[in-house]
Amino acid sequence: MQQIQAPKGTKDVTPAESRKWHYIEKTMRDLCAVYGARELRTPIIEHTELFLRGVGDTTDIVQKEMYTFLDKGGRSITLKPEGTAGMVRAFIENRLFNEPMPQKLYYLNSPTFRYEKPQAGRYREHHQFGIETVGSYAPETDAEVILLALTLFEKLGVRDLSLHINSIGCPECRRDYNAALKEYLSGYLGEMCETCRGRFEKNPMRIIDCKEPRCREIVKNAPRTIDYLCDDCRKHFEGVKACLDAAGAEYVLDPDIVRGLDYYTGTVFEVISNRIGAQGAVCAGGRYNGLIEELGGQQLPAVGFGLGMERLIAVMETNGVVFPDDPELVVYFAANGEEPRRKAFALVQQLRKAGVSAEFDHMDRSFKAQFKYANKLGAKYTVAIGDEELEVGSVKVKCMADGSETEVRLDRLQEYFRE
Asked: What pTM value is reported for the model?
């Protein structure tokens, strides 16, 4: 019978890998607490309309990458392809706009699905961490979100990164930009890929983000959003840069960043690693001042970012980050005989209830093999229990590091190990 394997583009997280995730997740939660952000969890499925309206029907995600199906009631359902639209839907539905602003929200280890070619650091199912701050127009808010991302990478030991920022303006100044861009691109329409020809009328700015070699060559000399900002957008972007300067954050002005989702307005940014090849962005985000209103809520500004956990781990590994080991096993009980095994089992349960990690043999190993197994587990101490130990009511606790032994009464073992 053929072995069943995980679907293409998905990945199991084994116990040896889980400890890396635990370390990263704890670091993220601790950092979010420092910044005053609270966790919001959303379903992995949403109504497809959410992404058509929120992400945009001209994006690659909607056109090519979504996992969409009809449920038994005939409703169109989509596996979540990104985190922000679902967060905004939950923000509106749960009336979080009634709480004091700004609302700082985060999601963690959120399963995300995109049908695309699997490659290094990119999977069809991956998991995201993201921050969304709602309610403030202030440039300090953009800068704070960016600095949170940079601080996270610093705490996780990720180096050799560069911050790239740009502004794509508001809908008003973008109209002038789109007109200039279409005028430039009209002379190359026949040379562009089919996808970009379709974008020309609906969303020409997305052509700047095309990965096709010919399209990339065409847009090299195209107009850039930064040159068409209105006074308010320009002032806001200058404020963001001033805040980053004040915090000592280095950045690159990158007019090619337009982001792949339609909801972005104003500030956009990417944190890029120079160690993972072509797919170098390890974090990306920006401001989306119209999305909440677009999805039926109030007119509220927002800014945020998302990053993939799998890609983050890959970057950490290329940086040589040493992950913490699993929590060590404090004591292993080796038992010889039926009654000693029962006693060892009971003692292990008592110690665990007291918060002490303890283990004993589940495989009916020989007495000698049990000690070998304890050594493989990395137990700090071993305790041997046989009929003689039960009779005298005490055992010898052996320190595996130096071989020293301490005699301890059975009724004081819990106290001994807690100390």
From this structure: 0.90
